Model the fold of this input.
Amino acid sequence: MTSRNLQTCRHDPDVLKPRPGLPRVRDLIVDTAQFFKRYDPIEPCFASDAPQPEKKHRQFPTSPTGMVKESMIGRAVRRGLKIDMPRVVARTRNTVTEADRPLPAALIADLRTDHAGESGAVMIYRGILVATRDAGVRHFAQAHLATEARHLAQIEALLAPPHRSRLLPLWRIAGWLTGALPAWAGPRAVYATIEAVETFVDRHYAEQIVSIDRHDPGHSAPPLQALRALLQACRGDEIAHRDEAAALFALSGKPPTLALRAWVWSVGAGSRVAVKICRRV
Ligand SMILES: [Fe+2]
Ligand SMILES: [Fe+2]
Done:
């Protein structure tokens, strides 16, 4: 209100404006997609182990309204929510922070493969959507695309640009072809391909979680545990994608042809090679 953050019930409004910094949709309504894209990766930082209060969380205990003024955020988070604000801000800007530096090099390399993989996954579904008019496959691809785009945004927020794969354009093209080629062949080929890709991704994330546990056996390093939680969530989605694709393939009632089995094998082998390269480049 009048460019100040106030509770409307406690002050006389002069001018009502939509929240600044976000695209306006209509009247006072803003598009919050950008906000949540940045909020998702830092959401674990806001999780509190404290017991739920009876009425509401007071972000700044001495404030009569419970609201946080801009200048008080640092103090409020230190007292109440224990948020490392510079790190949160840095993360939303995709920069490497002091807190991120202790991440072991092996985990950074793993994250690079995740980032490349999720970039490829987004392109797989884009390729499918370009190549098919089948309503069932399109519905399947659109739903999966939304999930993969979220995974990509979450991992992108954790991995600073200098740590990303220099071969990203190649992974994107490979992903697009991995979706478009089977989509031209038909729905069965799409579902078999997705089952193969997600089987690989499930194992990849599972190995990475084991690796995190080796680096942090006590589950006491917040950056590693936040990363672990994110990977667990992504892995759950990938398993659901794999099972859905397998179930849709099974509906055809026919086993895969020799050509389809050869394609599926090449998808798995290609993914393994891509991960090995991506750890280095
Ligand atoms: Fe994914
Ligand atoms: Fe997936």
About this structure: The longest strand covers residues 24-26. The CA atoms of residues 40 and 154 lie 6 Å apart. The two ends are 49 Å apart (CA to CA).
